[in-house]
Amino acid sequence: MSPVEKRSVTIRGHRTSYSLEKPFYDDLVAIAAERKLTLAALVAEIDESRPRDANLSSALRLYVLDWAKRANNA
């Protein structure tokens, strides 16, 4: 299993951080590239759509998982 790495990003003018394993981070970068977004823009989009009581790191993992499932069903 890949160790969890903490990363920082600025979204909507404030710095925040999230922790992801490298495979999730790599997929997040790939998704952003595929959608022609910056990584920060994708993280901001996910952050805006997550329930307020949900952890950002968990929301990012769930987004990647959902993206992978949709790709497998296409």
Describe the protein.
The chain has one domain (4-73). The protein contains three helices and two strands. It has helices at 22-34, 39-49, 56-73; strands at 4-11, 14-21. It has a two-stranded antiparallel sheet with strand order 1-2. The radius of gyration is 12 Å and the shape is globular. 14% of the residues are buried. The mean pLDDT is 93.
Structural class: alpha+beta
Order of helices and strands: EEHHH
Approximately how much beta-strand content do the residues carry? 15-25%
The average pLDDT score comes to 93
Q: What is the terminal-to-terminal distance?
A: 28 Å
The rounded Rg comes to 12 Å
Number of domains: 1
Number of strands: 2
Shape: globular
Major beta sheet, specifics?
Answer: 2 strands, antiparallel
Please state how the strands of the largest beta sheet are arranged side by side.
1-2
Question: Roughly what percent helix?
Answer: 55-70%
Q: Give the uncertain stretches in residue-range form.
A: none
